[in-house]
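Please annotate the following for my students:
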Amino acid sequence: MKKIIKDWKHSKGVHCGSAAIRDICCYYGRGLSECMCFGLGAGLGFYYSCEEHLNPSRVIQPRGPLMEINFLRNFGVEVTDWRYEDNNERASADLREFIDRDVPVLIQADIFYLEYFDSKTHFPGHVIAVCGYNDSESVFYVADNSFEDIQTVSFEDMAKARSSKAKPYPLSNNRIEVEFMENSCGFQDMVIGAVRKNAEMMLEGRTTLRGVSSVEVIRKWAEDLPDWKYLDDWKWTSRFAYQVISRRGVCGAAFRWLYRDFLEEVSSMLLPFYGPGLPERMSEIGQKWYDMGAFLKQISESSLCGREFERASELAFDIYQLEKRYFCFVLENSPVVALTD
């Protein structure tokens, strides 16, 4: 049996999670831009993982926790976290059952096991939308932001990708099925609540299975950067950090320019509370991230690292200070219209 969700449409995007959500919005008749989806999900964050057995041994992640959850709760979806399933066969059957009902499903996968990516590096947590399957060929059909066309993933590879235990984010067939979308509040309240929520999350910190995400983790990273020169894998660690900041679906600047585009799109709603300068402040932060990515790339291509990591640390402290000032300003000037945790 072959089944593809009726009237499903997909287009290439920037970031995996926000592009998958945008596709689902389109399916439910809501023409939201990708940056709007990212912003309404309060998508900014920062994780930093330090474990010697990681590959690389230091990993950063500039996206925030639960972006997809935050977004969907705006539209009445009753979900507080990803759903998990330890049994791979049951997880596969669940996907097919939802598709049979024309219900799209967001999943998290390790791209190492997705043949169409041809990746030699584990990268768990990549978000894609499952939109169909074919039993006779034993494949799922998925919408992935990196590709214009619908991709196929064998049942076997899908099980591996969804249950990967690669650190720092082991998976257990994580999924969110999206059966409907309806406004839970007025759109302006939704926007203001999302902007405030992202500030709260960054200043207060949020803990998930991946660790702690907060602006203070940027400071910790900045403090640690000078010691990267002692790492056996300092070249690969620098290269991977550059990729995460500049290339892996982050709009060139650790998602900050994607978020700036969201702020510009909703600027008229934000103006009464924050004045006209919020997008410009985020653009400046994004430029610092862009510079950091370029500098880490330069380090990764050097034969010796010398004092370069001290300079990288200075850049990271600049980012920390700019972000903390930005989020404090938002929180101090926001009306109390917040999304629910």
Observations:
- The mean pLDDT is 94.
- The chain has two domains: 2-31+78-177, 187-333.
- The first helix runs from residue 16 to 27.
- The first strand starts at residue 2 and ends at 4.
